[in-house]
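queue> holo job accepted (adenosine-5'-triphosphate)
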Amino acid sequence: MYEFDWSSIPGALPFLVQGMYISLEITAIAIVVGIVWGTLLAMMRLSSVTALSWFAAGYVNLFRAVPLVMVLLWFFLMIPHMLESIFGFPRGSDMRLGSAIAGFALFEAAYYSEIIRAGIQSVSKGQMAAANALGMTYGQSMRLVVLPQAFRNMVPLLLTQGIILFQDTSLVYVSALADFFGAAYKVGDRDGRLVEMLLFAGAVYFVLCFTVSQLVRYYQKKLKTA
Amino acid sequence: MIAINKVSKHYGAFQVLTDCTTHVNKGEVVVVCGPSGSGKSTLIKCVNGLEPFQSGEITVNGVSVGDPKTDLPKLRSHVGMVFQNFELFPHMSIVENLTVAQIKVLGRDKPEADEKGIQLLDRVGLKVQALKYPGQLSGGQQQRVAIARALAMDPICMLFDEPTSALDPEMINEVLDVMTELAQEGMTMMCVTHEMGFAKRVASRVVFMDHGHIVEDDLKDAFFANPRSERAQQFLAKILHH
Ligand SMILES: Nc1ncnc2c1ncn2[C@@H]1O[C@H](COP(=O)(O)OP(=O)(O)OP(=O)(O)O)[C@@H](O)[C@H]1O
Ligand SMILES: [Mg+2]
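queue> job finished
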């Protein structure tokens, strides 16, 4: 029988909390940037300007057809080089967090844009016509009439995608960045207590994600009855 | 006020409008009727440029709608439109529905827009509903709000696309009453409707459409007394016996 030994957790808590902070930071920034960029992509995709809609379609299909972990690796390898050569950043500065955030944001935008596109299309055409008929420009109609309704319908899906993103942040271990998962792994490896640390990390992910997804459900119910 | 001259429109090979010519003078009420699919909605949406058309010309108050140089949002801001399905903005309160375009399009300040909005709600008998949301109102009430919303922009003319056909019968009259009052005050109106009672009461002329053509364009009395075309006769017989 394997003897569990949880004693390395209490001492490692500050380190783990720091890791959690990094995971949440990546998640939050990637969600915000992903939604903003995703909204623009969705609007381009639906636009009647062929060049824009092709660009958006190409972007979305490209990012949805490659594994996330590969995108992250590209960014880890490319971004430091680019910043060094373009902006003269000192060689060897630590850009892993920045690269990770950029990678996630651009990758997630592809997924968000599909959710948002469906959301925009779920708003009846008559709403756009009514806004236009009142003299609103395309931009005003989108901003004041169509997007608020689209987002209200989309909040559950956007949050669910956010939960997936939070779980996926663990993939930054490929760059040895100490996010929550990376931190747990390092502690477990150091103390020879990998099994315990990974179980603990799994439990924390579970509790967080489960709680948020219950909140999403609650919101969804409220939305339906409203 | 509205002049439609030889307007044609097609979707691919499908001809929706063929050489449509008619007009609405200032202060006139013109009723447009015809069987389903005859192109009534399409024609009225061409008037404020919601639908593009391929040939012909439409001018509203002297401004050409089809001209690419025309500032369409500006033109639409003083052409009111009322839709079959109301199209109130469900995420805004009733009073916000009436003020949003006044503020964002006409640049009025909020107190002024609110005052105008409340005054128009009062006029359509819905002042007490100002803070509710569209979903909480009946169809007839929503359509009256939609009319008030259009009036809040101080339109020079109003377009109606079957404003009562999505309503339960008992709610039709409350909407027609508002429209009748508007007509009697001298508003220039182009109304797609099958409410022949309304047409008899307030219309100056009746336009009858079939298969994308304007088949009849007569003074009201002439139209109801003896429509010239067989299609219009059949149509009237059917509708008046209902
Ligand atoms: N986007 C579109 N693409 C192709 N055909 C269309 C489109 N919109 C309308 N049509 C066709 O154009 C014709 C005229 O439509 P329109 O809505 O103007 O008719 P209508 O007279 O308003 O009918 P109704 O009384 O049912 O409202 C119809 O046959 C319709 O199927
Ligand atoms: Mg119609």
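queue> The first helix of chain B runs from residue 40 to 47.
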